What does this fold into?
Amino acid sequence: MAKRGPAAHTPAPSTSSGVERAHELFKQGRSKEALAILRPMLQRKGQVDGDIAALAAACLGAEGDYLEAARVDRMLCDSDPGNPQGWNSLGFDLLNAGDLTGAMEAYEHAVELEPTRASAHYNIARIAARMGDKSKAIDHFARAVEIQSDYVDRLDEDLDLRPLKDDPEMIGRLPGAASSEDPYAEYYATR
It folds into this structure.
């Protein structure tokens, strides 16, 4: 029997199969394992792969490491500054890391790139409310509701925006939210 040589090196999975495996692990709630696959891919020289960066940032966020997630988001934004989702993700991670100013800037950039991104308008409203800018909070919340009407339901749920729920300026900006002084006005208007 011939003596065997050293074991052959098993090639690393291709980038696409590695990303697919990491995505499956992430969906299963196994973020740390997904990150173990993604980190070497992120460290490769050259152009940042948007899918890899986005998935790595999502994994980091799921692990509660929002500052590191924001660092990865920033790599994506620097690599592809015209990507509104990259800026939106950066805003999300900075907001969760407690950087209100940085989050506001990222969300505003996302809105510049994609004015119909309701989630970015909503988050700008939340941040503005935290920062005490009532007018900006109302403007962006009204815009989010205009784009996606179900955001109006969040006014009751969101601790940042709830104080504005009964504000006359807010009520006047939301579709259907303004009620007449006369509770029977709608009834008589239809007769």
User: Anything to note?
Assistant: Residues 1-13 have pLDDT under 50 and may be disordered. The two ends are 100 Å apart (CA to CA). DSSP finds eleven helices and no strands in the chain. Residues 6 and 160 are 62 Å apart (CA to CA).
